[in-house]
Amino acid sequence: MTGYNWLPAFSALENSDADGAGYTELGPGCVAVHPSSDGPALRAAYKKLIGNAAFLFKKRSSFTTEWFKRVNNALDEKIDLLKENPSKHPQDVLGMQFSDGTISKYPLRWAEIQGEIFHQLTFERMDSVIHVDIVPLMDYYR
User: Fold this and answer.
1) How far is CA 28 from CA 4, 35, 53, 64, 108, in A?
2) CA-CA 20 to 30 A from 108: which of 20, 81, 90, 96?
3) What was the pLDDT predicted at 90?
């Protein structure tokens, strides 16, 4: 949720050659980094990235096509582990300790199939996104 009117964002995207639009990432600590990525470079570029919580994209753009492919590849790599260790609740993550003391074996990290992929792709395609004023309200995040 944001406290902003999104109509100017839609208009800006529609009148551009960009694939997507979003708010400028808020800081280096907000950048989700895959363990195999260059974390320092990604985090240093946070002002050039769009944030992971409020964005819009043109349908079937090269960005969204690649994003969808990467998410599906990540899930395909772990399909057997996902079948063996389904999520026990909406915020289940690998290594989480449950109230009964057991440790989650759910095979995904918190940002693995969204933020880690999205920020890396945005880093690779900075020229295909524009920055607009739709910063989300983070008061009730998680």
Assistant:
1) 23, 16, 15, 24, 22
2) 20
3) 87
Tens-digit pLDDT profile for residues 121-132: 999 999 999 999
Cα(61)–Cα(90) distance, integer angstroms: 29
Q: Could you give the CA distance from residue 17 to residue 123 in angstroms, rounded to a whole number?
A: 17
Q: What residue has token string 């960005």?
A: 63
Judged on CB neighbours under 10 Å (0-12, 13-18, 19+), 67 is: buried
pTM of the model: 0.90
Alpha helices in the chain (DSSP H): 7-14, 39-44, 62-77, 79-84, 115-124
SS3 label, residue 39 = helix
